[in-house]
Every structure is written in C-alpha cells, then in structure tokens.
Amino acid sequence: MSWIRTVPDESATGLLARIYDETRAKHGRVINLVRVQSLRPETMLLGRQLYRHLMDAPGGLTKLQRVLIATIVSETNGCHY
Q1: Residues 56, 72: Cα–Cα separation, whole Å
Q2: CA atoms in the 13 A half-sphere facing the CB of 5
Q3: Is position 4 within any domain?
Q4: What is the pLDDT of residue 41?
Q5: Which of 24, 48, 49, 66 has its CA 20 to 30 A from that of 56?
Q6: What is the SS3 assignment for 59?
Q7: Dihedral in degrees, nearest 10, Cα atoms 13, 20, 28, 76
Q8: How far is 45 from 61, CA to CA, in rounded Å?
Q9: Could you list the pLDDT tens digit for every one of the 81 residues in the chain?
Q10: CB-CB contact of 14 with 38 (8 Å)
Q11: How many domains does the chain have?
C-alpha cells in the first residue's frame, strides 16, 4: 500500500476541520477516503459536490441504479470504497 501524507485531526483548520467534523458525525471517524485528500480540502470539496450531483440530480436512473453501477464499477476496479 502507498504511503500518503495527511493532515492529522488535531492540525485540521478551516474547511478541512469542517469536512473532518462532518465525516466524524456521519461515520463516527474520519474515513481514509477523506483523510488521503486532506492536503487539498478545496479540491476534495469539489469532488464531493460532483459526486453528490451525479448521485442525486434528476435523470434517467434511480438512486438504487446509480448505487448499483457505482458498486459494480468499484468492485471491477478492485476498489474497497
């Protein structure tokens, strides 16, 4: 596994601290998917907004279909997230 420098919880400020807090509230901890993006919180925020738009915006697919597609693609790519 690769080693990626991250911002520790106690060093997070501003936008990153807010993202860490939101993640802790939802998952009970700061998940690795968030932590590995901690050096670029503004970019992480844009990625999260894009993900939410793709998963929640009106379109021809149901939410369940979108989740199933994401799950199959992740499994196919060997991604645990």
Answers
A1: 18
A2: 3
A3: no
A4: 96
A5: 24
A6: coil
A7: -150
A8: 24
A9: 458 899 999 999 999 999 999 999 999 999 998 999 999 999 999 999 999 999 999 989 999 999 999 999 999 999 876
A10: no
A11: 1
In one-letter notation, the amino acid at residue 71 is T
The amino acid that residue 55 corresponds to is M
pTM over 0.85: no
Q: Does 2 fall in a domain? A: no
* Percent helix, percent strand, percent coil in the chain, to nearest 5: 65, 0, 35
* Domain boundaries, position 43: 9-76
Question: Which residue type occupies 56?
Answer: D
Tokens linked to 9: 């919880």
Q: Per the domain annotation, does 14 fall within a domain? A: yes
Residue 17 lies in a domain: yes
